[in-house]
Specification:
It comes from Alosa alosa. With 175 residues, the chain is mainly alpha-helical. 84% of the residues lie in helices and 0% in strands. The protein starts with 10 loop residues before the first helix and ends with a helix.
Length: 175
């Protein structure tokens, strides 16, 4: 599969992408039913793009390897969701060291797994343009562009919230 991300895959990798697609569909529906649209539109957009692209891989049994590579992005989600749980629980104020460690790991895995993976995927798609039919190339390009824009905004928000504002607050406290 490392040599051919288009037509080679194992039963396990197909199952991984299938289960992941089911998770994204479930989470999409949960957000539609239980969140305000204004609070969750970015997640809905993300899930729509992922479900569309992953469904192509699941149904055609093509590009499964590419979808598996895309799932590397989700490694960062562990720290992203950990950050959200710490904030929701109110531990952020009482566990500064744990919160700071998670912030550093979150930003580090964001660069390593989100930014790097999406950059690699964009490069792969451009290099393999002649091997991908135009409609699928268009879906992949638009999907990657949408996900990259959303991730750039998310990265900026995380950086501002966890590092830039934290630095300003420390400066304010010293004054």
């Amino acid at each position: 599969m490392t040599e051919d991300l288009i037509s080679t895959h194992s039963a396990l990798s197909h199952t991984l992408v299938s289960v992941s697609t089911g998770y994204f569909i479930h989470d999409f529906m949960d957000n539609v039913l239980n969140q305000k649209l204004s609070a969750g539109w970015e997640v809905l957009c993300h899930h729509f793009v992922v479900v569309t692209c992953f469904s192509i891989a699941v149904l055609t049994r093509q590009y499964v390897g590419f979808a598996v590579v895309a799932l590397l992005v989700e490694i960062n989600s562990v720290f992203l969701h950990g950050r959200q749980l710490v904030r929701m629980s109110g531990w952020a104020a009482s566990s500064g060291a744990l919160c700071r460690l998670n912030s550093v790991l979150n930003l580090g895995t964001f660069v390593a797994f989100r930014i790097s993976t999406l950059a690699w995927m964009t490069r792969w798609l451009a290099l393999n343009r002649t091997r991908v039919p135009l409609p699928l190339y268009a879906v992949g390009t638009v999907g990657l562009l949408a996900i990259m824009v959303m991730n750039a905004v998310l990265f900026y928000r995380l950086l501002r919230s966890d590092f830039l504002q934290a630095g300003r607050e420390g400066t304010r406290k010293e004054k």
